[in-house]
Automatic annotation (TrEMBL):
<dbReference type="InterPro" id="IPR015867">
    <property type="entry name" value="N-reg_PII/ATP_PRibTrfase_C"/>
</dbReference>
<dbReference type="GO" id="GO:0030234">
    <property type="term" value="F:enzyme regulator activity"/>
</dbReference>
<protein>
    <submittedName>
        <fullName>P-II family nitrogen regulator</fullName>
    </submittedName>
</protein>
<dbReference type="Pfam" id="PF00543">
    <property type="entry name" value="P-II"/>
</dbReference>
<dbReference type="InterPro" id="IPR002187">
    <property type="entry name" value="N-reg_PII"/>
</dbReference>
<dbReference type="InterPro" id="IPR011322">
    <property type="entry name" value="N-reg_PII-like_a/b"/>
</dbReference>
<dbReference type="GO" id="GO:0006808">
    <property type="term" value="P:regulation of nitrogen utilization"/>
</dbReference>
Amino acid sequence: MYEIKAYVREVMAEHVVDALAKVKGVASIAVVSLGEFGHLVGDESPLEKVKMVKLEIDVATDDVAGEVVELIVRTGRTQEGHPGDGKVLVSRLVRAVRIDDGATDESALQPASNQRFS
């Protein structure tokens, strides 16, 4: 099980989320607005500000994690790539529990069979 955090340019976020929504094994995507996210351009430059969002995606398997990372890199890159396009971080999850039905681990990262939104 993996948690994938991606920092992408705000202008690219909708494009990335639309692509991720088509991946089997991605049950949900959290989109967190950030005021600004800084990055360095060279050793001597000041911290430059770029409007970014943070995406958080939890997945059950290595294969899905690899697909998600590759997709974020491909769809989040501006043209040929520019400093400040973002970053993807992958962490292992020790445990997952879905609150509504108590499903655990890999099962908790899949859509619930009785999933409904109100």
